[in-house]
Amino acid sequence: MALSPELCKKMYTDMWRIRLFEEEANRQTSLGSVVGALHMYCGEEAVAVGVCSNLRDDDYVLGTHRSHGHCLAKGAESHRMMAELFGKATGTCGGKGGSMHIADFSLNMLGANGIVGAGIAPATGAALASKLRGTDQVSVCFFGDGAAARGTFHEGIGLGALWKLPVVYVCENNQYQQWVPRMNVAVLDSVADMAGSYAIPGVSVDGQNLVEVHEVAGEAVERARKGGGPTLIEARTYRFYGHSLGDEEQYRSSEEVDEMRTNHDPIQTFLLTMMEQDWLTEEEDMEIQNQVKDEIAEAVKFAEESPYPTPDNVTTDVLAPEQSDKSRPGEVAR
Amino acid sequence: MALSPELCKKMYTDMWRIRLFEEEANRQTSLGSVVGALHMYCGEEAVAVGVCSNLRDDDYVLGTHRSHGHCLAKGAESHRMMAELFGKATGTCGGKGGSMHIADFSLNMLGANGIVGAGIAPATGAALASKLRGTDQVSVCFFGDGAAARGTFHEGIGLGALWKLPVVYVCENNQYQQWVPRMNVAVLDSVADMAGSYAIPGVSVDGQNLVEVHEVAGEAVERARKGGGPTLIEARTYRFYGHSLGDEEQYRSSEEVDEMRTNHDPIQTFLLTMMEQDWLTEEEDMEIQNQVKDEIAEAVKFAEESPYPTPDNVTTDVLAPEQSDKSRPGEVAR
Amino acid sequence: MRTLTFSEALREALHEEMERDETIFVIGEDVITHGGPYKVTDGIAERFPERIFETPIAEAGIMGVGVGAAMAGMNPVVEIMYMDFVTCAMDEVVNQAAKMRYMTGGQASVPMVIRLPCGVGRLLAAQHSQIMESWFMHVPGLQVVVPSTPGDAKGLLKTAIRSPDPVLFFEYKRIYTSTGEVPDGDHTIPLGQAKICREGEDATVVAIGPMVQKSLEAAVLLEDDGYDVEVVDARSLSPLDTETICESVSRTGHAVVCGEDSSFAGAASEIAAVIGENCFRDLKGPVVRVGSPHVPMPFSSELVKHVVPEVPDITEAVSRVMM
Amino acid sequence: MRTLTFSEALREALHEEMERDETIFVIGEDVITHGGPYKVTDGIAERFPERIFETPIAEAGIMGVGVGAAMAGMNPVVEIMYMDFVTCAMDEVVNQAAKMRYMTGGQASVPMVIRLPCGVGRLLAAQHSQIMESWFMHVPGLQVVVPSTPGDAKGLLKTAIRSPDPVLFFEYKRIYTSTGEVPDGDHTIPLGQAKICREGEDATVVAIGPMVQKSLEAAVLLEDDGYDVEVVDARSLSPLDTETICESVSRTGHAVVCGEDSSFAGAASEIAAVIGENCFRDLKGPVVRVGSPHVPMPFSSELVKHVVPEVPDITEAVSRVMM
Ligand SMILES: Cc1ncc(C[n+]2csc(CCOP(=O)(O)OP(=O)(O)O)c2C)c(N)n1
Ligand SMILES: Cc1ncc(C[n+]2csc(CCOP(=O)(O)OP(=O)(O)O)c2C)c(N)n1
Ligand SMILES: [Mg+2]
Ligand SMILES: [Mg+2]
After folding, report:
1. Per residue in B133-146, pLDDT tens?
2. A62 Cβ contact partners less than 8 Å away, ≥ 6 residues apart
3. Which residues, including other chains, have CB under 8 Å from residue B28's CB and lie 6 or more apart?
4. What interface predicted TM-score (ipTM) does this complex get?
5. Domains D2-182 and D195-322 share a fold
6. Inter-chain contact C68–A162, Cβ cutoff 8 Å?
């Protein structure tokens, strides 16, 4: 998709939505309102937004444990996401999923995932579904550099490549795998170099640069949509926060983090570009930021005011309701 | 290891041992003495022999479902192997393993394996063991071209490469995966091309040519032993028989099989080389063949005359005997 | 009614369902070239060439593709060549397929059938003979079905395919060639219902898979001892039809639970525990399990015959509980 | 005796064993940088830098490496960060580690400990809260151990490490920080032995993991109702100490089996079935199980509290069986 000022504003807004949504979620965690693990995407916004800005509503997206950005970029509503983090009944998953399982099937966002590398083959499967139906939907799978070591990477991409399916594999190489620097446990610097094993294109891109990500992903999505098969994209990126909350980050220096925050913030980088191109005025910038702030404040309010799920929700959604007439296992227990 | 006439005679003999052992096992299957699946290695003899002729007794070998050749080449005794195929108590595994699980731990042959791709990470682990102990033992893992699609290939080789372990990964690309031609389900013609993902050398070699296999494997074993890390070898080979007994082989033409049998028989090819080099006389050839025939006849006799395991053997070897004093699960059942 | 083999019945179910609903597709190893080792998918490639996928050896990939396609609205029927290999795809079955609906608060549906040829067949030893029904029973979100006759095989497979949730469909290899009557027409059997195969007053034998036929044979032998044995085919292990099972045991007062798998922490353990919990006041003897000893499957036929439970094990158990 | 936390006790066991036997090594994700999420492997990298391997995210690879190293004479202690991820390595555990000795007719030994942090901890929902002890109980060739106190954690881990066969070592995350007395010296506890934690005459509660502590609390409450409850910590689930369990139940005449996992086809099912089978003549009431409902673990704390069984569930069950 060509870069129009409108699209740029939309993308810029989406990056802010991710940034502020997460910073607020982080704050809510310290207040005790949000519980469980919170894997912050801040710093990586250009990847989700740069990729998803090429997608149609009916395209599929599969995420990771670090998927707030993927969900928001695909169009998920921040208030329902926030409610999910609060464990409320109005959350995207009714409070049953939490941060690691946010999904919005109405947007074909088929879910974050708590298992590293678990989305790759399912994304391939969703692509197979579109091919079988004869639609030209594309599937995108986001995953971390850590996932590239898993067998599911090999098997999942292998099948997508074999059947030339409309799928884009996006590796977010943020150079850390939980608390371990990638190069302590990997032999290849670039994950894109693994594409050769599957005879598909492998591209590495600066994940802090929205324009570049948007372009590289655009080509890949286009190729997929036209029947040209999968692409493996490596977006070199960085997470501004620790792996998840409470991480003491002994494995990296604060200088490194500062340098990335100061000189490679995807939002600031893109703002500069927009200013240079006269796509955005300072007033518009303020307006966007304020509008996003309001949205997030609303989201918190919505989450706070929403009810918790009730005990009867414990046993629903295990199987589809039509089937629940028969005596269920577990009945006798407790 | 340099090719001496003695080594060549030994290798030539070993190829015949594999060929005749299997053809006899095949015959015994049609007689009903051998039961279960028999995955014939005939046609691929040069791979097992070419690789194992570079190994020391204390080097480790791990195999596949098609491992008679790997066992014999590592030095296993044909009479105990035959007894195993007969399901006899004197078999290498006391009749508990059968063709797919033949192992000889006294030779560090750590077993055939019924699960495709399941030996790769364990071979890496055996290599880790030698490294930890500070010995210079090398581990070799044989696997089929089908195994290269499995996640265990990716994970197992990935770890071996990461830790630069003394291990040689030998892919026997016989171009079929059960009843499916490889190129129906694979995108890369050569498995060696996948080595790039692990930043290790990948070499493709004519698996029908013993001399070439011996040399390529020799380099890899040497590199491993000296601390140079793993190698991925692809041996292009061919199985003369079906996947396992009863295979109607509709997926390949009899012309193809004939052509391979006639012009690419590893034994005949090597015989020619030996004759050309004056390493073997016709009489010696006859002598070797007769000696192997005798060995196999003895093996069958031994197998036939051996007793079956007794019912009490059903429950032994589940856990080590020292532990069997305590009441065991399963006691109550039946 | 026609007489079909077990695998013919499965094949028929697949063909009929694929005809009915074009979201159904088949995926697995060797499913085209050979129709799988047991020829269950034979003929599909000819009739529905676009809807059958023969894969490389990549069980996790296959299963993951199934999950994704199912979430995206398709109905995959995944064949795992031998159930033993589902160990290579447990995350996909257990953490993905089973939990998607719940984790997404009901948004996701994973209508997927996982066909698992299981148990001893030809002598293939420890890595090609497992059953493990209880593993999947223990996972909420999965359904576990074990047909014992061609008629049930067809009727249950059709229902399994139509289910909006994942079904683990166990096919005992040894009974693929067994024959039986299969009703004409659109024969479906609801999941979650056990079947009383033989009525009796003195004891209930609850059996799984091929043990049903053996239990029926045992029941005939036990007539001579004066025992009138009821045989219940559990058929659906999750959801388990505790109602039918417990009603029968409460009536007869005696129960034996038979499965071919090791009974230690097996499907039979759950059934025995449920009976013990619900029928205590009516039980006149202990609930006894018949199953394999807790050992891997050996290779030698001389050992195998002491592993797989047979008719005498059932008659012996029934006599024991009646004492 | 000293008072240690559960994770300190495990750490001590690891350090002592690694000191004793240099074939022991540790392998897993983040085991160096952070000592694993629960710091159990903390300090090992400093003390035994050559014998600890921090890996990429590759559970099947890690487990396979463990199996191979074990077959080649080493003693790996494999950490799976959350037990849920062992689903990514089931072939390695079930078809390789468990069956090697048997398939090779006793040639192979796989002395390997697989540490599995399990159960609910922080609220991490369905894919980070599982237990699944029964899966591994059902696999011949595996041993399953579940300590409930720091003292047992240390003693059992040391024995597990010395075992020539694979041990699945379940560590309930919620009790890592619990404290308890740990005997000095080379404290080991044989596998396969249950422990009577409290003697009583009226009913036996057989408990697993954190349910032991809750059962002891329930027992105190039940005193008020006039019930004198015996509490047995199953501790070793495979081999299962049926002797101690059944002896206790035969004495008291009543049994409740408590686990934190779903009881459907769970560890509690096996224990209940064994009791039903062996103690029938002495039972004065049904054997009842206490466990989670058969659902994936939800995220919201408001839901979780209705999933994990608590003390009142136990007192209620005991009262019920005594009726
Ligand atoms: C199969 C599996 N193994 C381990 C984990 C624990 N874990 C969660 S996130 C993570 C690191 C992931 O690294 P990467 O894929 O690079 O993603 P990032 O967190 O950097 O975005 C690990 C090890 C898991 N969730 N799943
Ligand atoms: C994980 C797994 N999946 C499937 C099988 C069934 N199977 C046995 S051999 C085989 C083909 C293997 O092909 P390849 O690796 O090329 O070895 P080859 O038989 O050609 O020597 C298959 C699919 C298996 N044993 N293990
Ligand atoms: Mg990362
Ligand atoms: Mg092959």
Report:
1. 999 999 999 999 99
2. A110, A111, A113, A119, A120, A122, A123, A126, A139, A140, A141, A142, C68
3. B34, B82, B85, B86, B300
4. 0.98
5. yes
6. no
Q: Determine which helix (DSSP H) or strand (DSSP E) holds C316, and give its type and residue range.
A: helix C311-322
pLDDT of residue A328: 40
Domain ranges, ordered by start, for chain D = 2-182, 195-322
Q: Is residue B295, in this structure, part of any structural domain at all?
A: yes
In a domain, B324, yes or no: no
- Low-confidence stretches of chain A (pLDDT beneath 50): 324-334
**Which residues does chain C have within 8 Å of residue D132's beta carbon, measured at their own beta carbons?**
138
Specify the DSSP class assigned to residue A109: B
For residue C32, the model assigns a pLDDT of 96
CA distances, D154 to each of C98, D43, D44, D183, D188 (Å): 35, 17, 16, 9, 7
Instruction: State the Cα–Cα distance between residues A140 and A329, nearest whole angstrom.
Output: 36
8 Å CB contact between D253 and D287:
no
- Give domain status of residue B255, yes or no: yes
The CATH classification number of D195-322 equals: 3.40.50.920
Q: Is C273 in Cβ contact with D287 (below 8 Å)?
A: yes
Mean pLDDT of D159-165: 98
Max CA separation in chain C (angstroms): 60
Is the per-residue pLDDT at D280 higher than 70? yes
pLDDT in tens, D185-207: 999 999 999 999 999 999 999 99
Instruction: Identify all chain A residues contacting C21, using CB atoms and an 8 Å cutoff.
Output: none
Residues with CB under 6 A from ligand 2: B 65-66, 114-116, 144-147, 172, 174, 176-178, 243; C 29, 57, 59, 81, 85, 88
Distance in Å, alpha carbon of B269 to nearest chain D alpha carbon? 35
Task: Taking residues C312-319, report their average pLDDT.
Answer: 98
B119: domain CATH number is: 3.40.50.970
Beta bridge partners of A144: A172
Residue entry with tokens 């926030």: A82
DSSP 8-state secondary structure symbol assigned to residue B307: P
Which of A120, A154, A164 is most worth mutating to test chain B (most B CB atoms within 10 A of its CB)?
A154
Chains in contact with C via at least 3 Cβ–Cβ pairs below 8 Å: A, B, D
pLDDT digits (tens, 9 = 90+) for C111-134: 999 999 999 998 999 999 999 999
User: Residues 6 or more apart from A305 whose CB is under 8 A from it?
Assistant: none
Better-predicted residue by pLDDT, A327 or B41: B41
Q: Whose CA is nearest to atom 25 of ligand 1?
A: A115
For chain C, the helix, strand and coil percentages under 3-state DSSP, each to the nearest 5: 40, 20, 40
What pLDDT score does A331 carry? Answer: 39
Q: What is the mean pLDDT of residues D245-269?
A: 98
Residue B100 in domain: yes
CATH of the domain spanning D2-182, picked from 3.20.70.20, 3.40.50.970, 3.30.70.1400, 3.40.50.20: 3.40.50.970
Active-site residue identified among C15, C128, C138, C306 = C128
H or E segment to which residue C197 belongs: strand C195-198
Q: What is the pLDDT of residue A273?
A: 96
- Any bridge partners for residue D27, and if so which? D53, D78
- pLDDT at res. B1: 60
Q: Which domain holds residue B52?
A: 5-309
Q: What is the 3-state secondary structure (H, E, C) of B224-273?
A: HHCCCCCEEEEEECCCCCCCCCCCCCCCCCHHHHHHHHHHCCHHHHHHHH
Type of residue numbered C200: G
Within A163-251, where are the H helices?
182-185, 210-225
* Alpha-carbon distances of D233 from A269, A292, D150, D196, D207, rounded to whole Å: 60, 55, 14, 6, 5
User: Number of structural domains, chain B?
Assistant: 1
What pLDDT does residue A246 have? 85
D297 three-state secondary structure: coil
